Amino acid sequence: xxxxxxxxxxxxxxxxxxxxxxxxxxxxxxxxxxxxxxxxxxxxxxxxxxxxxxxxxxxxxxxxxxxxxxxxxxxxxxxxxxxxxxxxxxxxxxxxxx
Length: 98
Prior knowledge:
This protein is α/β, with parallel strands linked by helices and about 100 residues long. The protein has helices at about 15-20, 40-45, 60-65, 80-90; strands at about 1-5, 30, 55-60, 75-80, 95. The protein has one domain (about 1-95): DsrEFH-like (Hypothetical Protein Ychn, Chain: A, 3-Layer(aba) Sandwich), CATH 3.40.1260.10.
């Protein structure tokens, strides 16, 4: 399994497209930094919901820092930094999309 970290806003459509073509079933996609805007309901439904059997995650601290906690899609699980570190150690590889 691969952990993909994504730190760009939803306006970066080319990067979203490239990432979507690379993510496979069983992978995890973690939104970090400004990438957490992809976890909002509108952005998620527009760009990511077509990916099947992918674990969608977002760093809770980045969500709170941007004041968007009330608008996160239900398919996205919020995690802390300790869980992020664990994911990095447990996955075969980590791919950063930036």
